[in-house]
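Quick one: sequence plus flavin-adenine dinucleotide SMILES, need structure tokens.
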Amino acid sequence: MIETDILIIGAGPTGLFAVFEAGLLKLRCHIIDALPNIGGQLTQLYPKKPIFDIPGYPTVQAEELVNNLYEQIKQFEPGFTLNEIAQTIDKQEDGTFIVTTDKGTKHHANAVAIAAGLGSFEPRKPPIDTLSKYEEKGVEYFIREPEKFKGKKVLIAGGGDSALDWSIFLADIAAEVTLVHRRNEFRGALDSVEKVQELKNQGKIKLITPAEVIGLEGKDKLEKLIIEKEGSKLEKEVDYFIPLFGLTPKLGPIANWGLDIEKNAIKVNNALDYQTNIEGIYAIGDINIYPGKLKLILCGFHEATLMCQSIYNRINPDKKYVLKYTTVGGIQGFDGTVKEAKKAVVKSIE
Ligand SMILES: Cc1cc2nc3c(=O)[nH]c(=O)nc-3n(C[C@H](O)[C@H](O)[C@H](O)COP(=O)(O)OP(=O)(O)OC[C@H]3O[C@@H](n4cnc5c(N)ncnc54)[C@H](O)[C@@H]3O)c2cc1C
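Reply:
Sure thing.
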């Protein structure tokens, strides 16, 4: 059982920043995310895009903002359960919660902050009947350990940045990389398209376009793919098939937690602290809805800040919280680090 003060569901910008605000109040956080990496939409959907409306940053690349958020929170030593979906929630008699993931990991917390954005991202799967039969037996939707593909025959399908970038990356690792796309044109960054062209010319990537994978074959694991190219069928022996057609967000299990849901989002008390209809469960960031809601990163940061104050009062009903500016109080990390502004030197003038 993982013990924490605040269990945060979702490692997008809102969930990450909540760790910082909680840390200032000496509250510990643990984050669950369905994905293998942090950053939510910023990492999954637009890592290389510049964002122009983060206060204090005239421009910041999405992945840089995620890296900076991690840099800012690591002193508060958040725990992470990545690659697991928060599946069930059980309120205990003492008002605390146990949240269990799809892989059975249990987390016990005083309060739960749902920062689940658009929901958990799930891979968009091509409509092939036998696909699910070979999942984890040759079909992969995420590349978590590239070393797994060393010396293997890999076929990637897709026409966007992920398909291009992973083809380039695996060209140096796998025995054979084939990229299949249903059009001749790719939708990725120009330099990635040019790099794939270069690797194709060097014989390091095989390109099959316009074409689609339409069948999978193999006894106990994937052995062969059937590809349709301009009306004719080809067979290709492979060890791995990696369809990279993007991710779709699904509200998923959270929809069954007894929360008030409106338009696929969780209703909260925005006049106070972003608490849901269940006391002790909060919803912040893109996942919540209230009159005037804006799905913006800076709104998620604000909501996380007010939520943490409320959770502090919930955990410490007898203590009175006095707001301290970080410029005045500094920051004491749980890792022993201390950051503080230089104290003013008081000198008397005779
Ligand atoms: C193309 C694009 C451009 C954008 N540009 C801007 C911009 O310029 N400025 C701006 O302010 N906003 C922008 N946005 C919006 C911004 O990205 C969102 O407001 C922000 O990502 C919301 O953050 P979040 O932390 O609330 O949720 P998300 O970033 O969506 O993160 C939620 C996380 O929760 C996880 N999760 C969900 N359910 C579960 C579960 N059951 N178990 C485990 N994990 C779960 C998901 O996997 C995900 O990682 C843009 C969005 C897009 C798509």
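Residues 9-15, 32-35, 40-42, 45-46, 51, 53, 85-86, 115-121, 252-254, 285-286, 295-298, 300 surround flavin-adenine dinucleotide (CB under 6 Å). The chain has a mean pLDDT of 93.
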